[in-house]
Amino acid sequence: MLVVEDDIRLGNALSKALQRQGYEVLRAVSAAEALEAPDVDLMLLDLGLPDGDGLDICRQLRRNGVDVAIIAVTARGEERDRVMGLRCGADDYLVKPYSLTELGARIEAVMRRARPRPKPILDIGDLHLDLAAREVTRAGEPIVLARKEFALLACLAQTPGTVVPRERLIMDVWGTTWQGVGRTLDVHMATLRKKLGEPALIETVRGVGYRLVRSAP
To answer: What pTM was estimated for this model as a whole?
Structure first.
């Protein structure tokens, strides 16, 4: 993820908050740096930059065929500003001030739209998931999971070895950003671990989320 924000203190605070949620974050403080940055999946783009308008960045990226997901972040809150931002190529438009909870939900929504369709069959080590049939086997033995347990495992299995933030799991499985679901998430995860027969297959990254590993250490 690339955070494009010329306010150094705000940009650093936002970057640290996103890193705590499990995102890899790069920083840019100008339009020139944003256009020269390495490829990323998502860009949080402040529109008021010292060397240009963020909308020009959107236009240039889209003209060049760059399909990075873009969330425009700005104090410009008029309807005409939001419409212009979306027409210039932004995928979403967030008006300052905003909460981290709302930002997280918008990031997840944009990334879901940009994410390629999941593979119908996933094999991670001796774990086999058939997403269409909603069936799970481990070493050839069937594992019966409840609906939300299967959804959690499927979410983790899309990116094995990568930490999936708690906020994303809650949004994808329960369809909410309400952190009160966190305890329910932990209970479901404990049950899922037990059913898999090897708790170490799902690793807890404290304060961030969970990771599916290919084999127990």
So the answer is: 0.55
